[in-house]
Amino acid sequence: MSEEVAIRLPEPADAENLLALLDRLQQESDTFSLADADDPVSAAQEADQLNQIAGSPRHLLLVASLGKTLLGVCSIAPTPQGNVGELGIAVEKKYWHMGIGTALVDEALYWAQTASELQAVGLMVQTRNVAAMKLYQKLGFTRTATPPTKVTDDDGERVTAVEMVYQLAAD
């Protein structure tokens, strides 16, 4: 690649490209799904959401971009516990194994440590997603004592998933 991949906060002008990326990610992966995928969002609504997220100490959204092309996304959203954020990440397949996922998660954890009100960042990962599990472990996530659970993937298949957590250092 002659251009360098940038890890950055999305701008409202990215809304249409972000929605297109999320659609591509859902189509090419059975480990990535959106909570409200059945409720379409317009580019204007997405731009408004991006503005709201940008001002939140409990929400983060990052994108990986190559020029104007978005190729990955990472989010941290608050959970019902309030002091724990849930990590979500996805990178287009053609950009896998290039360090983009690592860079996105690393930047998200830096934000969680330095700019958020969170005490931990957690996630559920399908055990068949070995590359993701290795990435999370490499970055300091550990499995919780919570027993493995079954989740339904986008194809309707029940698969095993485990909970992992990254503890943020106390101030």
From TrEMBL:
Record EC number: 2.3.-.-
One Gene Ontology term of the molecular function aspect: acyltransferase activity
Domain N-acetyltransferase, chain residue ranges per copy: 5-169
PROSITE patterns: GNAT
Record-linked SUPFAM superfamilies: Acyl-CoA N-acyltransferases (Nat)
Enzyme class per UniProt: transferase
Superkingdom classification of source: Bacteria
Gene3D superfamilies recorded: 3.40.630.30
Keyword Disulfide bond carried by entry: no
Pfam families, A to Z: Acetyltransf_1
Keywords tagged on the record: Acyltransferase, Transferase
Classification via InterPro entries: Acyl_CoA_acyltransferase, GNAT_dom
PANTHER family: L-2,4-DIAMINOBUTYRIC ACID ACETYLTRANSFERASE, N-ACETYLTRANSFERASE
Protein name, as recorded: GNAT family N-acetyltransferase
Source species: Levilactobacillus lanxiensis
